[in-house]
Write a structure and sequence with these properties.
About 55% of the residues lie in helices and about 5% in strands. The protein is mainly alpha-helical.
C-alpha cells in the first residue's frame, strides 16, 4: 500500500493540473513520456489511469487531488463535475485547517508574550518594594504546586499564576514614603497601605483577561478568622487560591531578609505558621504546606 509520495508541482500530470489550474487526465499511464518520479511506482502498483485536480481556494494552490485506477476508466461529465466539486471542498477544508493552526499559533505566542510581560511586572514590583530577589517567582511556584495537589482544575491554574505574579500590583497606588519607610508605620499609614488590595481590584477588574486572576491580589490579606482586610472575609468565604497564596507569601516573607529585619530561621517561621493555623491561615492549607516545606528542607 502506498502511504505517501512526493513530487515537485512543476513536473508530471499533477504539476500540469496545479500550474494550469484545471483537471488533467491520462487514460493510459504506460503511454506517458514523462520523467515524473512517481511513475515507476504507479506502474508497479498496476495503475492504468490518473485524474489530477488542483486544490484551489482564494486563487491559491493548496495541493493536488490525484485519483488512480487499476482498470480502464473513462468517466462522463457528471463524475468529472463531482471530482472537481470534491476538490473544491477539500481545498476549503485544508484552508480552514491552515487558518485555525495559524490562529492557534498566534494565540499561543500572544499568551506567552502576555505572561512574560506579567513576569516583568512582578519583578518590577519586587524591586520597588525592596522584596528579595526572586520572591514573586518563588511564591508562584509553590502556590501552583499546592493548588494542583488540592484539586484545583488545570484550566484555573493559569489564572492563579497570573494572580500570584500580580499579588501586590495594588501597591502601585501607595506612595514611596509609606511603602519604603524603614521604621514603624503610623495608624494613618497603615490605613493607606491596607488599601492596596482594593487598588488591585480597581486596576485589574477592567482588564477582562485578568479578571479571573483577581482572587489573589484582592483577597490575599484576608484571614481565616475574619480579622483580615479589605472585606473581613472569613473561612471558606475567602477564595481557595488566596488561602493557599497567603501561607506561601508569609513563609517567603518571614524567611527572607528585609531592610528592617533579618530573615527568620525555618524553625521559627514554621512554628509561627503552625500557631496561626485556624487564625490567619486555613488549617487544611497549613497542613499541606508544612508537609511540602518539611520535605523540601530535608532535601537541602
Amino acid at each position: 500500500m502506498i502511504e505517501s509520495y512526493q513530487l515537485r508541482l512543476v513536473k508530471g500530470l499533477s504539476g500540469q493540473a496545479a500550474m494550469g489550474h484545471h483537471l488533467v487526465q491520462a487514460l493510459n499511464l504506460s503511454e506517458l513520456e514523462d520523467d515524473t518520479a512517481y511513475l515507476p511506482l504507479m506502474h508497479e502498483e498496476g495503475f492504468i489511469s490518473i485524474y489530477s485536480v488542483p486544490l484551489i481556494v482564494k486563487g491559491q494552490i493548496r495541493g493536488v487531488l490525484d485519483v488512480f485506477n487499476r482498470s480502464a476508466f473513462n468517466p462522463g461529465g457528471d463524475w468529472i463535475n463531482f471530482l472537481e466539486t470534491l476538490a473544491g471542498q477539500a481545498a476549503i477544508a485544508i484552508d480552514n485547517i491552515t487558518l485555525l493552526e495559524n490562529l492557534q499559533r498566534s494565540n499561543i505566542e500572544l499568551t506567552l508574550a502576555y505572561d512574560t510581560t506579567l513576569e516583568g511586572w512582578g519583578r518590577a514590583l519586587d524591586l520597588r518594594d525592596h522584596e528579595t530577589e526572586g520572591h514573586t517567582l518563588r511564591v508562584v511556584d509553590m502556590t501552583l504546586r499546592m493548588a494542583q495537589i488540592l484539586g484545583i482544575p488545570d484550566d484555573e491554574l493559569a489564572h492563579i499564576r497570573r494572580g500570584a505574579l500580580l499579588h501586590d500590583i495594588g501597591k502601585m497606588g501607595i506612595s514611596d514614603t509609606i511603602l519604603l519607610k524603614p521604621g514603624p508605620l503610623t495608624k494613618e499609614e497603615w490605613v493607606s497601605i491596607r488599601k492596596h488590595p482594593t487598588y488591585a481590584y480597581e486596576l485589574l477588574h477592567h482588564i477582562m483577561h485578568l479578571r479571573p486572576a483577581l482572587n489573589i491580589p484582592f483577597c490575599h490579606h484576608e484571614k481565616w478568622d475574619g480579622s483580615g482586610y479589605p472585606r473581613g472575609l472569613k473561612g471558606e468565604e475567602i477564595p481557595l487560591p488566596a488561602r493557599i497564596f497567603t501561607v506561601v507569601d508569609v513563609w517567603d516573607a518571614l524567611t527572607s531578609d528585609r531592610p528592617y529585619r533579618k530573615a527568620w530561621s525555618a524553625k521559627k517561621a514554621l512554628k509561627y505558621i503552625q500557631e496561626q493555623s485556624g487564625k490567619h491561615f486555613d488549617p487544611q492549607v497549613v497542613e499541606l504546606f508544612l508537609k511540602l516545606i518539611k520535605n523540601e528542607l530535608i532535601k537541602r
